[in-house]
Design goal:
Structural class: alpha+beta
Number of domains: 3
Shape: elongated
Mean pLDDT: 86
Helix content: 55-70%
Low-confidence stretches: none
Order of helices and strands: EEEHEHHHHHHHHH
Number of helices: 10
Length: about 290
């Protein structure tokens, strides 16, 4: 089953008055490209988090974020009373010594002094809290994988449609392919008899026509392209992680279509080839999103 590399997952958990948020976004990339933003208290677990993400998601441009929401009472910076009292005593002493008047608005002055408003945030990560966070990370990853699978279903439907279109276009070439042998022969004979007006060896002409038509034969290209189309379908039904393989198959399909176009000396056939190229280009664009 196809999985897309595009996905989004989010989970939240509560622990001792803290709301812990985990968010993961994924886009297409040739390899694992992981960037993380982790709340300070959980940074000691960064390698464990990275290993879990890499093992679960395998490939993609991943943006992982974990942050904490606290109640306003907990997030407010406390007033350092000891430092504030020390500043108060120092200012009074200086005033008495120098005769400089004491300030009228003591609190405004004191609260502006260095280190009076200090946020002391020394925390230790407990095993219980980490277990809660780890479960939230797993839940966010599960949501992202589910998102990827849903996107994969849409991609598989799109690919199937495009592959069927190419197969139908390839089939539509056959009538023109059969007609062109007679047209090539008539055009060459007409040129010899009417335009150049010379006598020619009909046996030699037939030999040359056979050689020329063999060079323009596209049966091998058609067979190889049909095989590639079938292989693409089979590969889509394999387990996830086949994005690169589908890309290689699409490249091979492109080679056969291009060769068919170079051998198509008939306008109707060339128009069909252009349509096949358009269908294939849409496959190539979307296959970049496949895991």
């Amino acid at each position: 089953m196809i999985q897309s590399m595009t996905g989004y997952g989010k989970a939240t958990t509560e622990f001792e008055g803290k709301k812990i948020n985990v968010e993961i976004k994924s886009l297409n990339s040739k390899a694992m490209d992981l960037s993380t933003r982790i709340a300070p208290i959980y940074r000691e677990k960064e390698m464990e988090i990275r290993n879990l993400i890499t093992k679960t998601l395998e490939r993609g441009k991943i943006d992982f974020c974990i942050w904490i929401e606290k109640e306003a009472a907990e997030t407010a910076a406390p007033i350092n009373t000891a430092i504030l009292e020390n500043y108060y005593k120092q200012i009074k002493t200086i005033s008495e010594t120098t005769g400089i008047p004491l300030p009228e608005d003591w609190f405004t002055i004191l609260l502006r002094m260095p280190d009076v408003m200090t946020k002391v945030d020394i925390q230790e990560l407990s095993e219980e809290e980490w277990n809660a966070v780890y479960t939230a990370i797993q839940e966010a990853l599960e949501h992202l994988v589910t998102f990827r699978k849903q996107e994969g279903i849409a991609l598989e439907k799109k690919f199937t449609e495009k592959i069927d279109n190419i197969a139908a276009l390839l089939k539509s070439i056959e009538p023109y392919e059969q007609e062109r042998v007679g047209k090539i022969r008539d055009r060459i004979i007409d040129a010899l008899e009417k335009t150049i007006s010379i006598d020619y060896d009909k046996n030699r002409l037939e030999q040359e026509l056979i050689y020329y038509i063999e060079k323009l034969d596209i049966n091998e290209e058609k067979q190889r392209l049909t095989n590639h189309l079938n292989y693409f379908r089979e590969t889509m039904r394999e387990g996830h992680g086949q994005g690169k393989k589908l890309g290689f198959i699409a490249q091979e399909m492109g080679r056969e279509i291009n060769t068919t176009g170079s051998k198509s000396n008939q306008a109707e056939m060339q128009n069909i080839v252009v349509k096949m190229k358009d269908e294939l280009e849409q496959i190539k664009e979307q296959v970049l999103n496949v895991m």
